Amino acid sequence: MSATVPPIRARRAGFLMDVLTVAGRGLRAIPREPEAVIPSLVIGAFFYLVNVGTLQPLSEAARPAGFDYAAFQVPTAIIFSVTGVSRAALVVVDIQSGYFDRLLMTPVSRIALLLGLLISDFVLVIGLTIPVLIMGFIFGVTFTTGVLGVLAFMLIAGLWGIAFSGFTYAIALRTGSAAAVNSSFLLFFPFAFLTTALLPREQLTGALDTIAGWNPMTYLLAGLRALISDGWNVADLAGALMAIALVGAVSMSLALLALRSRVSRG
Predict the structure, then answer these.
(1) pLDDT at 1
(2) In this structure, what DSSP letter does residue 105 have?
(3) What global pTM score does this model have?
């Protein structure tokens, strides 16, 4: 009499291994898709060169002696390079190919599917900050906070990058559309231009000054600029971290809701 063979079930690898596996897959995809990364870097460099070349004399003339517009523009270039950069396009490909649904048939943690990609985004954003910083150094920019300030600058930029990427994942998971994800950069423009990206807050007037006061990116830029020019300004750094936390809370809530909806459909 033959014994009953128990059904074979996949064994859970553990939450940490799930996260690392998803993150590793996201990182391995980056070299195969340079067209998804290089444009962001080019945009940041382009705006830096144009802004410094056209606005530096005007801005420095209106400010006290010693104001360095080239240093002022480094955070703006960084933000233009890293905001909206994510592996959301990879999620769309997985959804359209049916791979995402197959993942849902495995015991992989659902949260790990998002968290792993966010980790790969963080590494990517840190990598994008390096050439922009080198460009700033070529223009003579120095950090009053030294090497630790450079590392803190990169960390804050990385946190902002993943905080904003929650919006792109929410769109990718909700729509499964590459066109919708590619259009998500439109969310960035109000953040970028209705703020102190081009000029100091003191040179803004009227409605633009009011809007900039409510824009989280104003405080993010202030924190990054403090690390370059003002030193370890606790108020500015705290404001930057609070802005990141606020944007991240909204974007990640939307991303998690979209993930739950996608999982329930899958």
Answers:
(1) 46
(2) T
(3) 0.87
